[in-house]
UniProtKB/TrEMBL annotation:
Lineage: Bacteria, Pseudomonadati, Pseudomonadota, Gammaproteobacteria, Enterobacterales
Localization: Cell inner membrane; Cell membrane
InterPro entries with a match to the protein in the record: Peptidase_A24A_bac, Prepilin_IV_endopep_pep, Prepilin_pept_A24_N, Prepilin_peptidase/N-MTase
Membrane topology reported for the UniProt record: Multi-pass membrane protein
Keyword set includes Cell inner membrane: yes
Span of domain Prepilin type IV endopeptidase peptidase: 112-220
Gene Ontology molecular-function annotations: aspartic-type endopeptidase activity; methyltransferase activity
Protein name: Prepilin leader peptidase/N-methyltransferase
Keyword tags: Cell inner membrane, Cell membrane, Hydrolase, Membrane, Methyltransferase, Multifunctional enzyme, Protease, Transferase, Transmembrane, Transmembrane helix
Annotated transmembrane regions: 6-24, 91-121, 127-145, 157-178, 198-221
Length: 260
């Protein structure tokens, strides 16, 4: 194991996490892709309290928050810890991928997948929404990823995308017929289709089972805390299950081998 590779992955993850935080914070609720892209590019980052434009030294991932002790350099008001947590989480994800020892090309694919599901999870947690602007490109990237592996992988990926969408869409139609209301959004069906495109149709039952178990645990914890949630986002549960399975499929480490 190359320790320098892990360190490089941590640094790259922190930088990516800083960008992903911007992407999430500027997400428009109407989920218009062009408007979202425009908001990401403009305006420049500024303090949410005083509106002062942040300099490059204020945007160094992780270090800026620690050096400034969680306060704005200009108005000295407390800064949200959210960017710090997201940057740390992204760094950890990339370090785990690097620890599984994939080839450089595969590392790039897994990093792309990890960033996408991380953004989807956080947006779904905040807005109960999985935007097409990410789920649909993620699906096509999954097909392209498996196409460059082998024709057999591509066949399984296409079947995974179809089965993933139809299974969740069918469950929702049954729930709608029985309860006269949607049980899950179409975003969940599209996201499950994207996971099927990345992992293949044979992995879908395991992903759904793991996601359901994670969802039950989250629901129980929220109930123990006295929280009364009407709707629970399922995207983060699917993300954890799908990410774990994909790393288990393509990583060389034994850490995730118990999943598959």
């Amino acid at each position: 194991m190359d320790e320098w590779l892990i360190i490089a992955a941590l640094l790259a993850g922190a930088i990516l996490g800083s960008f992903l935080c911007l992407v999430i914070e500027r997400f428009p609720v109407d989920a218009d892709g062009r408007r979202w892209l425009a908001r990401i590019c403009h305006p420049a980052s500024a303090c949410s309290m005083c509106g002062h434009r942040l300099a490059l030294r204020d945007l160094v991932p992780l270090l800026s928050w620690v050096i400034l002790r969680g306060c704005c350099r200009y108005c000295h008001q407390p800064i949200s810890r959210y960017p710090y947590y997201l940057e740390s989480g992204t760094a950890l994800l990339l370090a785990l991928i690097a620890f599984s020892c994939p080839p450089p090309a595969l590392f790039a694919w897994l990093t792309l997948f990890s960033c996408a599901v991380l953004v989807l999870s956080e947006i779904d947690r905040r807005h109960l929404l999985l935007p097409d602007a990410i789920t649909l490109p993620l699906l096509w990237c999954g097909l392209l990823f498996n196409w460059q592996l082998s024709p057999l992988h591509l066949q399984q990926a296409v079947a995974g995308a179809i089965c993933g969408y139809l299974s969740f869409r069918g469950l929702n139609e049954i729930y709608l017929w029985l309860r006269k209301q949607d049980g899950m959004g179409l975003g969940d069906a599209k996201f499950f289709a994207a996971l099927g495109a990345w992992t293949g149709w044979l992995s879908l039952p395991l992903i759904a089972t793991l996601a359901a178990l994670i969802g039950i645990v989250v629901w129980l914890v929220s109930r123990l805390k006295g929280q009364k949630t009407i709707r629970q986002p399922f995207g983060p549960c699917l993300s954890v299950a799908g990410w774990s399975l994909l790393i288990a499929q393509h990583g060389e480490s034994d850490w995730f081998s118990f999943i598959v």
